[in-house]
Amino acid sequence: ALKSWTCGGRMMTVPCSRVGHMYRVHMSKTGRWPPVITAETMQNAGFDADYKRKYSIKGQMTDDFGKIVKLNNLRVLYLWANDETRRNYQKLMFGNEELPPEWKELMEKLKSQPAALEQMQKKKENQCQSFDWFDKHVYMRLTGTHHPLHSSRMNK
């Protein structure tokens, strides 16, 4: 929704509609949630071969699904949010405004990934609005408060 709102799209409310997130592996096939993530998937996401011993969150090791979710969040923030919002997320998730070295290395790899470069180009071509614009003109209007990662909410 963030990409759609900031790039001139809109959301519509459709009565009786159902919306959800579809994962490639369904719980009925694995018998567990979150699903098991293969080593190939982890490496395709940018994690190195030593990923099992690295990439903690707030000093705690996390499962592969958690690592993928955090990486996706960081990717969205890198491409669509401002520095302050990224620092707030990092402080919330990692206990520090700076990314741990192993996560910083992943984000450096992201900058040269074709998909990320394509998104940055589309953002520029479409003259997409900033995260601050989204917070003020969309999030605030819908919820009556700033986004949870906005500095006014993080400093309380």
Q: Classify the beta-strand content into a percent band.
A: under 5%
State the helix count: 9
Major sheet description: none
In sequence order, what are the helices and strands, one letter per element? HHHHHHHHH
Mean pLDDT score, rounded? 83
Low-pLDDT residue spans: none
How far apart lie the N and C ends? Answer: 27 Å
Keywords: Disulfide bond
GO molecular function, one term: polypeptide N-acetylgalactosaminyltransferase activity
InterPro entries: Nucleotide-diphossugar_trans
Describe the structure.
By secondary structure, the chain is mainly alpha-helical. The chain has a domain at 26-129. 53% of the residues lie in helices and 0% in strands. The chain is built from nine helices and no strands. It has helices at residues 2-6, 27-30, 39-44, 64-80, 83-94, 101-110, 114-125, 131-143, 151-154. The mean pLDDT is 83.
Task: Record keyword descriptors for this entry.
single chain; 156 residues; disulfide bond; Nucleotide-diphossugar_trans
